[in-house]
Amino acid sequence: MTSKVLILKNDRTGDLFVSLQAINKIINKHSNQEINIFLSHINHKFDFLFPKLKKKVLSLNLTIFEKIKIFFYLMLNDIDSIYILSPKNFYYYLPLFFRKIKFYGITIKSSRSRPNNFLKKYLFKYSEINRVDITKRKSSYIIQEDLIENTDKTKNFLSMSKINHNHIFEYPNKYVYFHYKHNLFDNLLGWELNNIISLIKFLEKKYSFVIFSSELNNKKINKFFSEKFNTYDFTDKKKKLINNDKIIFLKDVDGYDLFYAVKSSNIVISPEGIISHMGYYLKKKTLALLHFNLKNPQGFINQIISCKEWFPPNHYLYLVLKKNFNKSILKLKKRNFI
Q: What is the DSSP string of 12-74?
């Protein structure tokens, strides 16, 4: 019986998109073996990307019961290689008990490194993310790809198609996709929701048609946008038109429907995170929105390290917003992004 390969990737959705090229390299390398991937209850909504892989859903933070199940899964299955793409402490203890399995792992160098040097030596191969030194570094995209040996095969095993949509909404031919993220616009920038309305209408004037979304399960924000803009509700699959504006709010869009909305767009303008990484993966012209809330020199260093780690490796455009809304709009006006 052919041995199996396991990919451990039960983390957040943005992290999943950062790992996609590395996962594709793993599939290329082990194309003649059964490959299993463990996803989280958050990112498994994008499991359509891996049609040939066997999937299992775990918690974002593993329970004791799930840790025991993983342990027995490794005991009862013939596993050749395991790829730790979610750097969780529990995973680094597994090589101590399963010496015949080749463990490949992403490791973290920080004030609390994962794993420690003792556990690190039991990994067959590792690729390290350095969160200590403010030096020239590779993007996390490349660091994860470096974990997998080069193969002669370059076939793309990831899928961007799905037979059934969960909606009847028809997208316009050309539009800019915008995403509202509460932490950036409210917590960090301190902008009011009326400022967001002005921003969206500014985008409409510049790009003609705007499709936008907000975070899931924020009833207050969803209610506000639904009362101000034309809306398509993905929960009840109904479209509500209240004006002639070329702006549509996608309420509770998620999973493949979210992926399809970004895939069908021409331009993506979004806070740095899942949507901007999705746009990058889909080769859309993407502008990531940022704000640095710097309180001391160490905060500046941490932000630089974080940006170098998470930004995609090539042709990634970003704009640092100011707390002053009008000054931020001026920066957007100056940005030639059509």
A: -HHHHHHTHHHHHHHHHHTTTSEEEEEEETTGGGGGGG-TTSEEEEE-SS--HHHHHHHHHHH
Q: Give the relative orientation of helices 255-263 and 274-281 as an angle to the nearest 10 degrees.
A: 60
The pLDDT tens digits of the residues spanning 187-229 come to 999 999 999 999 999 999 998 899 999 998 889 999 999 999 9
Task: State the pairing for strand pair 267-271/317-320.
Answer: unpaired
Which residues belong to CATH 3.40.50.2000 in the chain? 4-145
- Asked if 246 and 204 count as a contact pair (C-beta separation under 8 A), the reply is yes
**At the top level of CATH, which class does the domain 176-334 belong to?**
alpha beta
Q: How far apart are CA 172 and CA 178, in angstroms?
A: 15
Question: In CATH, what number does 4-145 get?
Answer: 3.40.50.2000
Instruction: Give CA separation, 272 vs 21, 60, 199, 276, 287, in Å.
Output: 19, 21, 17, 6, 8
State pTM to two decimals.
0.90
Torsion of CA 221, 225, 228, 229, to 10 degrees: 180
